[in-house]
Each structure stands twice: as C-alpha cells, then as structure tokens.
C-alpha cells in the first residue's frame, strides 16, 4: 500500500511510519511540528530529545534500507494538503494530525481556539483532499475513548441500537467529552459520518485509550528512532507522569479520589491496531468504529502497579492524592466493549511489571533531565 501518515512526528505517528515501512509499504509522513512548538512554549518538552523527522527518516533508511518520504507543512493549509494527496496518491491515510492535549485546550481562549481551528480544519481538508484527488483512499482516523465520557451504561463500539416508541434505529453512541480537545474529536466523528453517508467515503475511526510504552521493534534499533516521551501535565499521560515521578522520588500524584477508570493500550498494540484497520478497510460508504484498548483500571490501580514495579527496583515509591484540576467523575461505571480489533487478530501486550520496569530503566538513563516543575498540574478546568 501507499500509506500517508499525518502527524508523523508524534508519539504514535513516527512509530506507525516505521512499522508500515518495515512491512514493505510505501510510506510518507507529514507534520508541521505544532506539538514541538507548543511543548517549547509551555515548558513541556520531552524527556528524551528527538531528531527532526527528516533526520529520523535518514537514520531509519540507513539502518533498514527502507525509505520514508517526509512532507513538512501545515495541514490546515488546504492547498498544501490537496497537493500532497494529489502527489502521493495514498491508498490509506492514517490521520493523527491534531493538537492532542486536553490540558492545553483548557488553558484559555487562545489555546482553545488554536485547538478547535487546527483539529477541525485539518480533518475537513483531509476529507476534501480525498474526495477530490484519491476517492478510493481509506481514511483511518485516530479518535479517543474520551469522546464517550463515562456514561452509566456499557460503551459499545461506536454505535448504539435504540428502541423508541416501538421503533428501532442505529445511531452513533452518545458522546459527552470532558475537555475541548476531546470535543473536537467528537466533531471529527460527526464530520466524517456526514461525508461518509453523503459522498461514500470509506473511514475507520479508532477510539483509543491512553497509550504507554517506549519500545517497538524499529524504535529499539537506535535511540534516535525512539518515540517522543512527555511526562509533564500538558502532553504527558498519567502513566508517563507516574513513572517519572517514581524515578525522581516524587510521590505519585493521584488526582482526587483516584477512582477514574480508563482503558489503556501498549504502544506496540497501537501499531497492531492501525495495521489491522488498514488491512481490513471499511467499505465504500461505511464509517467503521473500533474501541482501541486492551485493559481497564482506575488511577489508584495504576498508581499501585507503578509503586509495585518501582519498589522491586529499589525506588521506594510513595502515592499522594491531590486536588483534581479537571472536571470529571472520580467514581463511575465504566464497561467499554473492545472485541472488534481482537476479532481481527490483535494480540494484546498487557501492562506487566516487566513492561513497567523496562520503561523505568529507560527513564533512569535520563534522570538528570527530569524537570520536576513540569509534573504538577498547571492547568485547571475551573
């Protein structure tokens, strides 16, 4: 396949590009370094410095003989997006190219507007670029489990059959996002669904839970090929933050009561899921939705897992509850369905003590670069 990966500089984008290239596909990546710019602006830079996309692509080619084409530019520019799709003629577009931080989207008006305009403009441009220049292309869009919120019913995979006054129909599962970032992802889904049913696009929307991990077969070839690793309150996931706190000797900061339950996913499984989605493309006029996670647990359970892994390595990890800066339910029902990708062939990598220990060892190697002031919450929803 000819695979175009948007947001190819990101934590998921770059490993995805290497995974497809290693499998023999013709791969191109596009990015405008928005995440890097925001990270510098907010003092939220990655723990481990990463080379530019072009430098990483050259290093990957030197090690594997596989070439990754690089486009640098703003996908919110419709001319650039149209020209890129026209030139590359992708069979599949993997769309990661959005401002990915919930806290950043809640900092204030400027950040909210930037998130809203970037995320919706890019998705809109991608849709029209495909319609105009690659109408058979399959769009694989990264959604988020955060779109659903925490309803008091089981979360189905994207769709819900409803019976009302003796009649039945199928609708997109109700959404109740907890940040502006997550709300833009809801709007993405609605936008894609409109163009799917109106113009016959083929789209797979992957509702992904928080991802953790630093190891993939290609990333392990050379430190320069590793994924971005953020541990701050803007771009760092709770897993990354807890692991860095364990290494730095800072108590793991559980927001509020710690009963918030989410579905988690190893980085290696993200690569599996995206590959499976592209290898089993949606039909023309179909919006197919998968919930992309492999296990669920509360923040308290996650903290205990990190404490246990850290203690076996002599870190003497402590856990501390702090005021929750977010507006969210801290105790709630959470039972998402996630069988679709497993039925396609996903073989999960679970969050074992060994997996956490491997991440801790990698963080220890960069312990001197940890900036403790980046860890505590700097953004409040209220």
- The shape is globular
Give the CATH superfamily: NAD(P)-binding Rossmann-like Domain
Query: Which regions are unreliable across 5 or more consecutive residues at pLDDT < 50?
Result: none
Q: Give me the CATH architecture, please.
A: 3-Layer(aba) Sandwich
Number of helices: 12
Q: Total domains, how many?
A: 1
Please give the number of β-strands: 14
Mean pLDDT: 97
User: How helical, in percent, are the residues?
Assistant: 25-40%
H/E order of the elements?
EHEHHEHEHHEEEHEEHEEHEEHEHH
User: Which structural class should the secondary elements be placed in?
Assistant: alpha/beta
CATH class descriptor:
Alpha Beta
- Report the biggest beta sheet as strand number plus sense, adding barrel if it closes: 7 strands, parallel
Rg measurement, Å:
20 Å
Proportion of beta-strand residues: 15-25%
Distance between the termini: 46 Å
Strand order of the largest sheet: 3-2-1-4-5-8-12
CATH topology: Rossmann fold
């Amino acid at each position: 396949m000819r695979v175009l990966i948007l947001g190819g500089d990101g934590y998921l984008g770059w490993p995805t590009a290497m995974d497809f290239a290693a499998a023999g596909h013709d791969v191109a990546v596009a990015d405008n370094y928005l995440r890097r710019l925001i990270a510098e602006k907010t003092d939220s830079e990655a723990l481990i410095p990463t080379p530019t996309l072009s430098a990483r692509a050259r290093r990957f080619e030197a090690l594997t003989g596989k070439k990754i084409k690089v486009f640098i530019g703003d996908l919110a520019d419709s001319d650039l997006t149209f020209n890129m799709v026209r030139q590359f003629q992708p069979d599949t577009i993997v769309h990661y190219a959005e401002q990915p931080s919930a806290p950043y989207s809640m900092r204030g008006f400027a950040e909210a507007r930037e998130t809203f305009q970037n995320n919706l403009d890019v998705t809109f441009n991608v849709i029209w670029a495909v319609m105009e220049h690659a109408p058979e292309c399959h769009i694989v869009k990264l959604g988020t489990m955060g779109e659903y919120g925490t309803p008091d019913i089981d979360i189905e995979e994207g769709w819900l059959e409803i019976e009302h006054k003796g009649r039945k129909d199928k609708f997109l599962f109700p959404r109740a996002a907890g940040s502006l970032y997550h709300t833009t992802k809801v709007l993405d889904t609605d936008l894609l669904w409109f163009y799917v049913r109106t113009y016959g696009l083929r789209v797979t929307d992957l509702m992904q839970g928080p991802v953790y991990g630093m190891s993939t077969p290609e990333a392990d070839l050379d430190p320069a090929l590793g994924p971005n690793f953020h541990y701050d309150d803007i771009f760092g996931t709770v897993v990354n933050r807890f692991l860095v706190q364990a290494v730095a000797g800072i108590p793991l900061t559980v927001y509020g009561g710690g009963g918030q339950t989410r579905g988690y996913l190893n980085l290696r499984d993200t690569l599996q899921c995206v590959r499976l989605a592209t290898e089993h493309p949606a039909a023309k006029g179909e919006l197919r939705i998968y919930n992309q996670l492999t296990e669920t647990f509360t923040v308290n359970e996650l903290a205990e897992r990190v404490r246990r892994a850290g203690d076996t390595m002599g870190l003497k990890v402590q856990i501390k509850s702090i005021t929750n800066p977010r507006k969210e339910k801290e105790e709630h029902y959470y039972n998402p369905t996630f069988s679709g990708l497993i039925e396609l062939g996903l073989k999960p990598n679970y969050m074992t003590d060994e997996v956490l220990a491997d991440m801790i060892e990698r963080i220890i190697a960069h312990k001197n670069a940890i900036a403790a002031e980046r860890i505590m919450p700097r953004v409040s929803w209220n």
